[in-house]
Amino acid sequence: MIRVNNVRAGYGDGPDILQGIDLTASGGEIVTILGPNGCGKSTLLKCIAGFVRPRGGAVEMEGRDVSAVAVHDKVKHHRMGFVPQTDNVFSTLTVADNVLLGARHLPVPERNERYAELMAQYPSLASKQERKASALSGGERQILSLARALISTPKVLLLDEPSAGLSPLMMHEVFAAIAAIRDRTGMCIVMVEQNAFEALSVADRAYVLSLGKVAIEGRAADLLADPAMRHLYLGGEPPPAEPHPRLAAVS
Ligand SMILES: Nc1ncnc2c1ncn2[C@@H]1O[C@H](COP(=O)(O)OP(=O)(O)OP(=O)(O)O)[C@@H](O)[C@H]1O
């Protein structure tokens, strides 16, 4: 579904931030991109999305080279959803209006049908449909961002640090929601994350970047179990707490 071939990319006339990255992601899997601050995780996601154009190599979606295709065309023609890193809900709009913003291009009956499905899936949003988004918790705002991306039934969902700024409990809720999207829809999900242990707990495969290159790639379960990986890239031993019950159920 997504294939990144030897991609190089950077900003302006600056150096290459990505120095020859290869990555694949298929339908029905969560692929997480990990690594230290500034290693190029978000830049890679922006290359896949179309915000940053590769200087070399190619990004393919469903076998087509989409390296030069702009974000809005990918959303429209390749059914891509993108949820950016920073809190991107509109605080002064209602929950309903925020979700419906993602469906402006859909015919009204389809839009209403999709909206009703989403409200059934996310009761925390359904109960607050007419409230301003400013009244939501951090976790609920992140679920709202997801719902806005999901209303157009994407095939590919790109998430830039969905757990940023969330408490551990909210983080669990958001990751459980992401895993449920994969299980329910078979969507191809690519997720940049800082919280490596949590991300690996729900992901199927992972790429660890270092200085703009892929340092390690593999099955998430294998990477979680690898002592060298833990020492070098995951900040030591896993947290002592047991996984959240919903996460345990997911894995
Ligand atoms: N718009 C930009 N213009 C110039 N340089 C940028 C821009 N965005 C990012 N960079 C630089 O690119 C490098 C990689 O940034 P990127 O955001 O991809 O890293 P990251 O791994 O996602 O980091 P973090 O985990 O801190 O979010 C950094 O040195 C950063 O300063």
Automatic annotation (TrEMBL):
Cleaved signal peptide residues: none
Domain ABC transporter: 2-236
InterPro entries membership: AAA+_ATPase, ABC_transporter-like_ATP-bd, BCAA_Transport_ATP-bd_LivF, P-loop_NTPase
GO MF, one annotated term: branched-chain amino acid transmembrane transporter activity
Source organism, top-level taxon: Bacteria
Transmembrane regions listed in the UniProt entry: none
GO biological process terms held by the UniProt record: L-amino acid transport
Keywords (A to Z) from UniProt: Amino-acid transport, ATP-binding, Nucleotide-binding, Transport
Annotated family: Belongs to the ABC transporter superfamily.
Name of this chain's protein: Branched-chain amino acid transport system ATP-binding protein
Source species of the chain: Aminobacter aganoensis
